[in-house]
UniProtKB/TrEMBL annotation:
Keywords: Isomerase. Pfam families: PhzC-PhzF. One of its GO terms (cellular component) is cytoplasm. This is Uncharacterized protein. It comes from Reticulomyxa filosa. One of its GO terms (molecular function) is isomerase activity. Belongs to the PhzF family. SUPFAM superfamilies: Diaminopimelate epimerase-like.
Length: 390
């Protein structure tokens, strides 16, 4: 059996946010990770290994730790550098299920190729209100990710052609009801493309955009981007829509037509909107962001300019805890905190040695039998015994 959790990330209520699977192992078996990721069919599955485990063995002096190795696999079987919502889901499992050594200290995640991430529980000293949320974000966890800075497209011809392609892909000019929605600006952010839209009613207009995914897949300019994010400032704040920005993210290149909630994209959106929502001298501190997918999800974003890091504040909800029935897998179970249910290699070697000793004594007993009349029968028994038939 193998314990797996399913968690909805960037939400404080079930059946919303971005679902991810979380699996805790003693070591990485890449072939097994691929199979599990395909079986769970979430974008993505995070696999955790505690730093206290070495060579597949668990140190006995400690059963919990705040340092973990983390790797991510997509349902298509490919490994991903890092995933925001799956990291949040992993932190939620470790804190809520008792795997963290100190719940008041941060978790340190060591990735394969994207550096280290830290996740802290957000201990709120006072009740968070819309008035003080800019200083005290309300959600349960704060994640520390690398900042993703955006760049303008310097080639004016390429920029114009990209905007024309986007208007077709987003169906902005084709539908009369979308005439008031226009592209205000486009920038690149690493492998992604950010598209600022000019809208009248932010949430309603953003939800009304119906992209043609086939154009995004086939267009020569658009298909080069990992994801295409559309975003807009919320100019009509009220009791129901207190967020500062709204976004949607499309990633047909990576097999996701629309991402439910993307932490990675918000590492750039926070920077893009920070100076635009505040002033050049005083950018807005925490930006309240909403991703208007079918599931919907929200988070707060803040740039730590001195460290070139972005802080993401979000919550998560455990939706499922289940056992995957596979054999010969080393894993940790919740009740015993990292106990190994299947035998380790040393235990298997001990059992083989014990079996040989038992065979030796049985052999000695049969051979030393005083009944000399049944020598042939005795020899036959010994032969059958050593072949494992008796």
């Amino acid at each position: 059996m193998l314990r797996i959790w399913t968690v909805d990330a960037f939400t404080h209520k079930p059946f919303a946010g971005n679902p991810a699977s979380v699996c805790i192992l003693t070591h990485y078996d890449e072939a097994l990770c691929v199979k599990i990721a395909r079986e769970m069919n979430h974008a993505e599955t995070a696999f955790l290994v505690p730093k206290i485990v070495t060579s597949g063995q668990l140190r006995q002096d400690s059963q919990r730790t705040n340092e973990w190795y983390i790797r991510y696999w997509s349902p298509r079987g490919s490994e991903v550098n890092y995933v925001g919502h799956a990291t949040l889901a992993s932190a939620h499992v470790l804190f809520s299920q008792g795997f963290a050594a100190d719940v008041n200290d941060g978790l340190l995640f060591r990735t394969k190729s994207s550096g280290n991430f830290q996740v802290f529980r957000n201990i709120k000293s006072e009740k968070v209100t819309p008035q003080n949320a800019d200083l005290n974000p309300p959600f349960d966890y704060i994640m520390d990710f690398p900042a993703v800075y955006y760049q303008s497209i310097s080639d004016e011809s390429k920029k114009i052609n990209t905007i024309k392609s986007l208007e077709k892909a987003l169906n902005l000019k084709q539908e009369p009801t979308k005439e008031h929605i226009s592209i205000q600006n486009i920038v690149t952010a690493g492998e992604d493309l950010l598209v600022e839209l000019n809208v009248k009613s932010c949430l309603e207009d953003m939800k009304s955009v119906k992209p043609d995914i086939s154009i995004m897949k086939q267009n020569e300019l658009l298909k080069t981007y990992r994801c295409i994010a559309i975003t807009s400032k919320n100019s009509n704040k009220n009791g129901k829509t207190s967020f500062d920005i709204v976004s949607r993210v499309f990633g047909p290149k990576i097999g996701i037509d629309e991402d439910a909630v993307s932490g990675k994209i918000h590492c750039c959106l926070g920077i893009y909107w920070g100076s635009r929502l505040g002033t050049a001298q005083a950018p807005k501190s925490w930006i309240h962001a909403y991703q208007a997918s079918n599931r919907g999800g929200e988070l707060y974003v803040k740039l730590d300019e001195k460290k070139n890091r972005v802080l993401l504040n979000g919550s998560a909800v455990t939706m499922m805890q289940c056992d995957l029935l596979v054999q010969n897998v080393f894993f940790f179970c919740n009740e015993a905190h990292f106990s190994q249910v299947f035998f380790s290699k040393k235990k298997i070697q001990f059992l083989k040695m014990y079996k040989c000793i038992i065979k030796f004594f049985i052999f000695k007993t049969i051979w030393s039998a005083k009944d000399q009349k049944n020598q042939k029968k005795k020899v036959c028994k010994l032969i059958l015994f050593f072949f494992g038939i008796v």
